[in-house]
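Researcher: Structure for this, please.
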Amino acid sequence: MRNKGVKVGFVKTAINSLSQEQFNELVRIFQETYWERNEIVGVDGSGDGGCDIKIFVDKKEQKKCVQITVQKALDAKIKNSLTKAKNLVNLFNYSPSLEFYCNSNISNTKLEEYKKDAKIAYGIELDIFDVTRIAELGGSPIEEYVYGLHSDVIVKPSEMTFEKSNKFLYDLLASGTASSNIKNSILESVLVAIIYEKEVIKTSDLKIEAEKRLGKNLSDITSLINSLKSDQRIVKDPNIMGGVRLSEDEKRTVKDIYATSMDLENSFNTELDFLVAKYHISNREAVYNGLKRLYKLNYTNDIKDIDANEDNVSQKNLDEFKNCVARLLPDHSQLDIFVMDIKHLCDSNNYMNKIIAGETFVSLYQSNKLESYLNRKQKTIFLDTPAFIYYLCATYGEDLGTSDWDDPFYRSMKSLISLQKTNNQRIIFCVMEDYLYEITNEIKKALQISKFENYPFFKDLGTTRNTIYNYYSYLKTNDLFDINDNIECLEDFLELLGFENTDFSNGYFQNNTLKNLHEFAEDSQIIIEKRPFCENFMSIVEFYSKKLLSINKEKSYYAINNDVNQVISALEYDKTIDRYIATWDTTLHHIRLHMINVDSTNRYSYFYISNPAKLSNRLALECFNIDASALTNDIFAYADKKYDITKRVKTLLEMISPYIKSENVSGKLVRKLAQLRKKQCENIDTDENLSLEDRTLPVEEALALLIPDSETIKNDSSIVTKFSIYMNSVDNSDYIIRIIEEIMKEKDYKKYDLSSYWERIKQVNL
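Model: Predicted structure, token format:
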């Protein structure tokens, strides 16, 4: 049966936005209808003495304490109201009770807390009517009052059109039964929309109208109509033979759904109009249609399952929208910021997503592809190293709400986590054990970086791509740590996350960290996959290495091996389960395609590769729970310059942090390097369309030549240790700085003769 809470969706939203005067009138109506009190006098004001209304029965005042508020800070308001009520009880013999009306929503836990405190501390029986309770108990009079204040969102049956009902289809569908037969749910929703529009219709005509709207012939719909009757959603019409109408309960539900949808549409259009005016765009419809096409393309591509090339396709679609907007913008320099404003609009308002989702469902229904797209199979999702790290961070940000990190990777991963937690029987996370080793290295890097953070030149060393440190820094900078957690440094933060050993120089650091990662995965119900056996492993590694070389992608041999093992595991998993790799890595599909092509035994089964944003939205659609931010993170990914990890370069901070000891951080070498970088940042041509994160500065290019590369390490296994010792010696600072400055004078840095420098390094005594 339909969830009864649905019918008060719009009413609740509307009540929440009422002014004090409007809410006072609503409470008066509630008093008259629910309590059947017909003599109500409002006395709200500074001298009300603790009662916002007076109640009379047969012209005799009832000594009843009533408080009404639209304030959002309820703790102080309730305590103040209880104090006034206690005074009225003691001084004027009022009843030891308080009716408290507010237009906010209060959790059951908080309600019980307020009631308990009122009884113990004040001796008052507290009865709270929050927005949910008022909406559910108020009935038709409350609904009619609210609707009267928002007449622009009321869609009467006589005003319904096919176009309008199509816009509301997703909301109508999402509000229905949790049917495992999605096709029936679609058809039921279309039938309900038609009956609402027509008010009364014969079942034979209903079938014809449904076929017209869905664009296909339908089989007998008698069983669906009977199901709607048994759920008391439709009833027989006594005046027309074979006619049906919506029950009064269902009619109110549909009216509320349409009002909510209309309010969402109005809000979206108002904000879009504002943006169009702000950027002096004359053709508003072109922007709207371009945005609608962008969303349509996203769903179309998703249905076609072109995940092998999804990021290229996503970027192409966004570029098409940007080109459309660029032709309309008088000032082309504002293009990027306008697109980000559009993204923020779509983040906060689901309208565009919902109408395209509704259209997509109908299209899939017509082509008989709906059930395969929104299937109910169990899903196994492999998390690679970056995805797992964001999962780790998100455990602290679980209760931060809107204050949490506005990072596109983090937000999409957090959305995916939320969906998994609410569907943990059907969605299972797993991670390759070898990736846990990579994560220990990322934790080590974060600790290495953090030793610089308290020095004045820290910001001049550049940024870092290290997710763990960046999330910690965000929380610290914005004062978001819980005061009871006593977090003063990264070590404290990591210990709170469950990592016992934060001394990266300790010989047991890696083993201890691995142990803690295993414990975290177990507590989070993430399955740890062992390395699989594959007789062709080395040939696959060779293929992947060559492929990466051909597309100018760099990965360590260790990372290549781990990626290959993950793909093998995904391919060989249970064929009855849908398998996904949640990753931002666009190269893994090469391994998958290669292995399927060379599979002569047919032991491999296809799996999907998808970034967490796209995957999150697809799973949300299955649950009819659209997450606006999840989809916009995917659609507008390439509007955010931070999104493409592969194009970001190493900064000075990342280069030196593994080699400089903490006691030498304030030394001449690091300070001088920071000064050089700062000066180069100040002299950068701001007209170039590149952020600092996208640039390798001359000082960074020069320093990179002084750090042992893989070939040098291969020839001398001790060279890294010798290099670190040399860099940490104060006596060598001037020489290193001089070498860097000389390199930067060359047109081709690589032609600078470093033979004498490497001789010095090799002569370091261990």
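Researcher: Any notable elements?
Model: The two ends are 76 Å apart (CA to CA). The CA atoms of residues 429 and 682 lie 45 Å apart.
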